[in-house]
Amino acid sequence: MTSRAAELRRSRELQRQGGDAQRVLTARVRAALRTGELALTANRAYGGRGAGETCTVCGHTIGFEDVLYEVLEPRRAQAHVDCYQLWQTESRRVLGGGQRFGPWEAI
């Protein structure tokens, strides 16, 4: 399965679970940012293919067919593409929208 197909499958799964799953994940990210469990994602991220890592954001496995983003600073974290995008969105909200960064800036 291609990485794009895996992303679509994951998005469809979230949609199938309904908005509740997205709201739960958003609440989890917000709480983790508040407590410091997740760092703000103004740092660079490196993209690659998953190899069975656990997503720091949602806690699910990042499969071999999935693309992962890896953040190295201030501490190492891995995330699915959609989880990383949510993490960035919530980080921007905490930062007040003053700092520009997005998935297109990941290297």
Q: Write down the secondary-structure element order.
A: HHEEEEEH
What is the number of helical segments per DSSP (H or I, 4+ residues)?
3
Structural class: alpha+beta
Oligomer: single chain
Q: How do the strands of the widest beta sheet line up side by side?
A: 1-4-5
Largest sheet: 3 strands, antiparallel
Estimate the mean pLDDT confidence.
79
DSSP strand tally: 5
- N→C terminal distance: 23 Å
**Cα radius of gyration in angstroms:** 13 Å
- What is the domain tally? 1
Strand content: 15-25%
Poorly predicted regions: 98-107
Helix fraction, binned, reads 40-55%
What shape does the CA trace take?
A: globular
